[in-house]
Design brief:
- The protein is built from seven helices and no strands.
- The chain is an all-alpha fold.
- Helix 5 packs antiparallel against helix 6, helix 5 runs parallel beside helix 7 and helix 6 packs antiparallel against helix 7.
- About 13% of the residues have low confidence.
Length: 172
């Protein structure tokens, strides 16, 4: 048994030094690097390519699932390109800024001020996402700050109410 325990590590050690070279002819698989560059320039061109043209570029036949995914992607791409041409940009920073302002405004209205909590949290979350997408977005930063200030004012108001109740002896 001791000999077997000694032979196993020796066998593993010796087998790790063996080299087996496999000589096979690499298959000619077209990649993005082998596709001619003029065929891939511009998102507009990609949005208008037909399935046959893409099959020709890639050198293989697309499966049904790939064809459907390609068409969905092309539709989304066309929609984004149209929105970009019109100058429509979705601004999460603007949304965070508005939510922060509404949160502070709602905080000042009695009986509705409880709605300021989710508004402030949404302003912070959406503002953070907008800052990740565009670190220079000033409205996103302002939305985050307004959300934090709103939550801070809510906590301060709760502590103030608790202090007043404790001072008057209303706990008893």
């Amino acid at each position: 048994m001791k000999k077997l325990m000694l032979l196993i590590p020796v066998f593993i050690l010796l087998s790790s030094f063996t080299v087996k070279e496999i000589h096979t002819k690499p298959a000619a698989i077209p990649t993005v690097a082998t596709v001619p560059l003029p065929a891939l320039t511009g998102l507009e061109k990609l949005a208008t390519l037909k399935i046959k043209e893409i099959e020709k570029l890639t050198g293989r036949k697309l499966k049904l699932k790939e064809k459907i995914a390609l068409k969905i992607y092309q539709l989304k791409l066309k929609k984004e390109l149209k929105a970009k041409e019109k100058g429509e940009t979705k601004s999460k920073g603007q949304t965070a800024f508005i939510l922060g302002l509404v949160g502070i405004g709602v905080l000042l209205i009695p009986y509705v001020s409880i709605a300021a909590i989710p508004l402030a949290i949404l302003a912070i979350v959406i503002g953070s996402k907008a800052k990740k997408e565009n670190p220079k977005d000033g409205k996103a930063q302002t939305g985050i700050i307004l959300g934090i200030v709103t939550l801070g004012l809510i906590v301060l108001a709760i502590l103030l109410v608790l202090a007043i109740l404790a001072a008057d002896g209303w706990w008893v």
